[in-house]
Amino acid sequence: LRAAAAALICLALILALGHGAGLAHMFNPWALARGLCEVMANLGFTLAILRLPIADVTAIAQTAPLLVLLGASLIWKERLGALRLVLIGLGITGAMMVAQPGATSFSPYALLGFLVAASAAGRDLMTRMVPRGIPALVVALSVLINLTIAGGIGMVAFETPIVPDLRNGLLITLAGALMVGGHVGVYLAYTLAPARTIAPFMY
């Protein structure tokens, strides 16, 4: 429902700003790939917090900015420097300690946290592959449509849908508006600035 509210708000903004002619670009393969990565990140996080403490899942998922920096170095040829590489290694080591892969108490669900991180990093690393001429709101709408479809399938298949009352409906709408701002902001940030500048803000 949040994704659906966000998609409607995003569509209204696109039409109000006169970008309606660019709606066909929401099916650009790279825009769609970013949306699929977002779906995987959301799905992985949802499944993980059903089985693990949310603090553990969050700690593992927070390796996403570190993976973005590594990807930016390998794919975009951004210079990181020795100190950043050491700190990235320490951060990933810390996440591995949280997951405790060598412990008898290790839960395979911890791997979902790494799926979240990898999917979120993949979304951000694909940003520069999207053609520059596509409006940011259209790229965001592509992600939001992906989330709406995936969430709708999950809701119908595994949940009992409930019609929200007025208060919850307004909160969902507000959350949707913030979601639009977040997706547009992340897209523009990685388009306009080096990853080493943007990635730390993801914390």
Q: What does this entry show, briefly?
A:
The chain is an all-alpha fold.
Name some characteristics of this structure.
203 residues, mainly alpha, 71% helix, 0% strand
Blueprint of the fold:
Blueprint: H1 2-16, H2 29-49, H3 54-61, H4 64-75, H5 82-99, H6 110-125, H7 136-158, H8 166-192, H9 195-198
Helix pairs in contact: 1-7, 1-8, 2-6, 2-7, 3-5, 3-6, 4-5, 4-6, 7-8
What does this structure look like?
The chain is mostly helical and 203 residues long. 71% of the residues lie in helices and 0% in strands. Helix 1 (2-16) crosses helix 8, helix 3 (54-61) runs parallel beside helix 6 and helix 4 (64-75) crosses helix 6 (110-125). The longest helix has 27 residues, at 166-192.
Q: Helix count, per DSSP?
A: 9
Helix content: over 70%
Q: Biggest sheet, open or closed, and with what strands and sense?
A: none
Q: Summarize the helix and strand pattern as letters.
A: HHHHHHHHH
Would you report the number of β strands? 0
Shape: globular
Which spans have pLDDT < 50 for at least 5 consecutive residues?
A: none
Q: Quote the beta fraction.
A: under 5%
Structural class computed from helices and strand pairing: mainly alpha
Overall average pLDDT: 92
How far is the N terminus from the C terminus?
Answer: 26 Å
Rg value: 18 Å
